[in-house]
Amino acid sequence: MASNTVYLTEQEVQRIRTTVKENAKKRSELRGNAREARGAKDAISQATGAALMADMGSMTMDKAKESIPALAVGQPYPPCTKSVKELQPMKLADLTMETHHRGRQLSVKRASPVVMLTSRSWTMAQDEAGETERLELLLHKTRHRKDILDSNSTFIIKEPYFTLTEEGEPTLRIDHPSDLVVLPNTQDAQPLAPDAAPEEVEKRATSHKQKGNAALTKGDLPLAHASYTAGLALAARLPTPDLARDLHRNRAHVNLLLSQFDAAEADALAALIPSPPAEPVSDANDDASLRTAELNAKCYFRAGTAAYNLGRFADARAHFERQLSLMPQDKGATANRTRGGEEEGAGGGALTAVTYDIRDDRIRVAPVGLERAIVERTAKNPSLIGEVMGLYGDWDGGEGKGIESTEDGPVVDVFRVHDIVARNAFGAGSKDGQGGGASAGLWIRAAYLNHSCVPNAEREFVGDLMIIRAIKDIAAGEEIVHSYDESGDYEARQQALMTTWGFECACALCAAEKGDDAAVREKRAKLVREGDEFLKSAGSSTNKRLAIVKAKRLLAAIDETYDEKKYRGLPRLATRRLQQWLTAASARR
Ligand SMILES: C[S@@+](CC[C@H](N)C(=O)[O-])C[C@H]1O[C@@H](n2cnc3c(N)ncnc32)[C@H](O)[C@@H]1O
């Protein structure tokens, strides 16, 4: 994104820098020190008070204060790449300061209310030995729109990281969602004997299905999903597949609602009834085949919706075509089919944060809502992980590089997502990505396009649909390039490209501008600034004729700074905005 530099006062910048650096120093000095035990009673009452304050704050003005969180970034570490089974259990008493306890796992339960803040939530947790410690979850603190910590389940923390909060308080801190495993609440599960009679198995599986349906009606999607899954485990033991198909079909629907599109498509296809042959139903008396066609059409609709949301438009179209061929009279199917072929950006989440990156000492505004949406979407849909993680980012994942799952589920490195978003996201609704992080999105295919100041393509948006449009003839095999930053001022452009994307542009235009005399460049930059000032006031000018004369004069002055021969065939970016204004103003006259 071109405009992710935030304008803070020098004092504020210094304060953020100093705090983050001092914290980093303090943390490194404490590394390896033994943890100090906490008094359970005090710890719990501290969390209870803070939770109350946070709740009250969320209803009052304090929310605004927390709604732009400040986050220190640039000290990435990989997520745990082992399964819980492969890790050695440890106790809270074994924790040492500023340590990633590699190869270990910690089992705790929540012992206090959850303090829910915008970018993080925390609680006091207790292990079996009765020790208490603070546990904090960053950014990715919700699952199924519910705070993960707000649960009575057992939490397994994989390779726990024990550190200090920004305020200097010791805490267990979880950045990668996959480092926290929430054990299902198995209290009421009574396993069925392996040799139970099929009637008994069917009865139990049906009861899970009914429980799932009831949960779905109430909107309790996680419970509906768990119930259908429990039902499926039993239905697999039955001699006939009908109940399993029903459960798959229902779970496909829940998976769609949970944005688990990989699983939704797999469920929908597993629910297909293979016979009678998939033909249009012509004989209305044939109830059984009509019912089969209806059910299969439903499956194809769910599979199509899933594929569409995964950005696999050809597959989505194929599924919708099948739905349509089974139920030609179904108008919904026709509408769905026409949607296949649209491009989609993974938008979502207007939350922004001020970040201080320790690596380059810079303060930026990061669209952390987008990061969170991408982490959630990829973690729920593992088929997308490779595509997203293949994009360019500074942190390559370290030891976790290329690892997309463990036995416990998908693994998404949040630090890599952060860096990828910084280098690859664009703001929808404006060509240059200006407009802050609120409407930012990651368009995976477009993100593979490189920059040139002499582009052969431009991006445009229709809603969240990004269109890459050729602006000149492009030969077969020629690289398609667009401009990340169209600033007419060479220095400003180079600075934006370096700050946001980390490279120095070496295109023909930059080579020519770099070769210009410093005095010429300064003169041009000064005229561009003058032009910008002029454009700001030109709209309100009462004497249009005079304004046009002035614009033409400025344009001629900028033009003069370009050497005719050297700039032959190259765009004169510094003149662009004035040119555009003049064209529009002349047309209006
Ligand atoms: C949006 S990505 C473009 C795709 C990227 N090249 C890749 O392979 O994933 C932006 C990154 O590509 C590189 N890049 C893009 N245009 C470039 C150019 N003209 N010169 C050098 N590096 C460029 C920079 O590293 C930049 O941070």
From TrEMBL:
Residues 389-485 form the SET domain. Residues 189-214 are annotated as: Disordered. The keyword Cell division does not apply. Keywords: TPR repeat. Gene3D superfamilies: SET domain, Tetratricopeptide repeat domain. The keyword Transferase does not apply. TPR repeats lie at residues 297-330. It comes from the Eukaryota. InterPro entries: Gramillin-biosynth_MTr, SET_dom, SET_dom_sf, TPR-like_helical_dom_sf, TPR_rpt. CDD domains: SET_SMYD. Pfam families: SET. This is SET domain-containing protein.
